[in-house]
Specification:
Structural class: mainly alpha
Order of helices and strands: HHHEEHHHHHHHHEEHH
Distance between the termini: 86 Å
Number of strands: 4
Radius of gyration: 44 Å
Largest sheet: 2 strands, antiparallel
Strand content: under 5%
Number of helices: 13
Strand order of the largest sheet: 1-2
Low-confidence stretches: 13-21, 28-33
Mean pLDDT: 76
Shape: extended
Helix content: 40-55%
Length: 309
């Protein structure tokens, strides 16, 4: 068996190739990775970019690489080559590019410069009647296509719209009157009732609140004078002045914590129908938001105190 020094002298030559790893590994009785790490990587040159890191072996050229991957882009040579390659300032390059892009549909919609506009205007004047845009066929097509955007067509359409005629309106109304309306027939009503029974009732309803709507109110709730006193306290106005939709002027008395048995003045507030429906029909996530919202209004206006939950 040869010594390690003799084997390294044998294989550390310019004719060394990666394909001869097997012979070296057999002589050293070690793994391929450990041999390359301990012996071959010592002879690897450093990267020319100046990072003080060793370069890898190139199997295709069978030589050591000059740079590490992506390190060549950091050098000044690479920057100078890019400057030489830029041909945007050459007039010949612009001519070739204009010839290449003639008739290209992807260039549509791009705004022209002042020079190009002046050049096109002179060209159109020089052509005169020979230009394709001034031909009678093209003018007819343009007029037909643009007629639907004019005010004359819009007026004509409003006057002759079939949905606004009296004859059409009568026919539409007659189809919905009496037994002619399909939704009022007994056969159709039975089908609708069968399909909708049990779907939106009880716990299947999106506004279900564990049966609270069936619970009775407190004894004070039947007193009309007590309700009127709360409305007079709030000046007979909706107290939600920040986010009220103002769709209905009718007032209701709202339980802030949605507890029917809690009829204290601190828990009652006058709101309109839309605000009351939003607060009662809200989900569990937004329910606490409305409780805190109306409690803050009562604290600022009347100085009530509430327990923190």
């Amino acid at each position: 068996m040869l010594s390690k020094i003799a084997i390294l002298k044998k294989y550390k030559t310019e004719s060394f190739r990666i394909e001869r790893y097997g012979e070296v590994i057999a002589d050293f009785a070690c793994s391929r990775f450990s041999f390359f790490r301990d012996n071959m990587n010592k002879d690897a040159p450093y990267c020319k970019c100046g990072c003080n890191k060793k370069v890898t072996w190139n199997k295709r050229t069978k030589k050591w690489n000059k740079y590490i991957v992506w390190h060549y882009s950091k050098t000044e040579k690479f920057k100078k080559e890019i400057r030489k390659r830029t041909v945007f300032n050459d007039p010949e390059f612009h001519k070739k590019q204009s010839e290449r892009l003639k008739g290209n549909q992807y260039r549509k919609g791009i705004k022209h410069t002042k020079k190009t506009r002046e050049f096109l205007s002179k060209r159109l004047l020089s052509l005169g009647d020979k230009h394709w845009m001034k031909s009678p066929k093209h003018r007819k097509r343009m007029s037909e296509n643009n007629y639907f955007k004019t005010d004359k067509f819009k007026r004509w359409f409003k006057e002759n719209n079939p949905s606004k005629r009296l004859d059409v309106k009568k026919k539409q109304s007659e189809t919905k009157l009496g037994n002619k309306n399909p939704a009022k027939r007994p056969e159709v009503r039975k089908k609708i009732s069968k399909t909708l029974t049990g779907k939106y009732c009880g716990p299947n309803s999106p506004n279900w609140k564990d049966g609270r709507s069936f619970e009775p109110y407190c004894s004070m709730w039947g007193d009309k004078e007590y309700k009127q006193s709360i409305k007079d306290r709030d000046n007979n106005e909706c107290q939600n002045k920040f986010d009220c939709w103002k769709t209905n002027a009718r007032l209701h008395i709202h339980h802030i914590d949605s507890d029917k048995k809690n009829c204290r003045p601190s828990n009652l507030i006058t709101v309109c129908v839309s605000c009351n429906a939003r607060a009662q029909g809200s989900k569990k996530q937004s329910k606490q938001y409305w409780i805190n919202f109306y409690q803050n209004i009562m604290i600022k206006k009347y100085g009530y105190k509430y327990k923190e939950k």
